[in-house]
Amino acid sequence: MRTLFVVDPLDRLALAGDTSYALMLECARRGHEVWTCQIDHLGLEHDDAIAEAVPTTVRLADTPAAAFSIEARTPLPFDAFDMVLMRKDPPVDTAYLQATWILEHGRTKTLLVNDPRGLRELNEHLAVLRFPELTPPTIVTRSPRRLAAFQHEQGGAIVVKPVDGYGGLGVFVVRDGDPNTSSIYENATGAGTKWTVAQKFLPEVTGGDKRILLVEGEPVGAVLRVPGKNEARSNLHVGGVATLTQLDADDRAIIRAVAPVLHYYGQILVGLDVIGGRLTELNITSPTGIRHIEQLEHRNVAAQVMDGLEAAATRRKAGR
Predict the structure, then answer these.
(1) Does residue 165 surpass a pLDDT of 60?
(2) Is the CATH number of domain 137-201 3.30.1490.20?
């Protein structure tokens, strides 16, 4: 198979925890052709989506310089690839949005992981509100006054985060008595000019935030991300610690509920974030976790993911 990865520049990938790198390695093990590009290299020739991509040799290594070798950049239409993995990290900004419009023209030409319509319509923080019975109490507002009222309604502690945030940036836990509360609310809402998300604070987060990876609605693994000392966020790149975990009954109920919606929007590779049995985020742009699960469980999770992607690509070719 020939696989295109649309990623951030290769020299910026943090290989130790990068899921795109894990998938590239598995492609290389299988003898796939691996090609890479950035969103800057996407374009249209009339109605054909093209990518000015580079053939990429991938090796197991500690640094990007040792892990990747590239050849000359070549413009290729999307139908030259068996699958195209859109793995550009957030933010979902104007450039990202415009890239999805280009990807739209590749819909009938190859397998797109993930489908651009879903990438546009399922905001990673707001999409969970399609399942209110599964989420903590949540509001979206531009009003600092409404945030203060919501904090009181939820017992004095809430989490505030940007609608278009990622990687834990701009996430605050606000508790009664914090002298910075008003300033946080003003900053979060841009003094009433931008929307922010507020959720009830779940004290279970101190025990960890569970990332569950799904391929076509089926779980392939999970990792518990435990916040570091004096840190409310569990994101691994801000000091969260990856630990072993298993799926429980609440997790499986969440998966059953979200899987049909993910299928409808063509979201094949997805990460769910679960705290205390409540769904808090739905990650579809570039969900991570493969390498951490592999290290903890000593199994090839990337192989299981690629099995699912190859099967989906084969079905697409067969028209099923």
Answers:
(1) yes
(2) yes
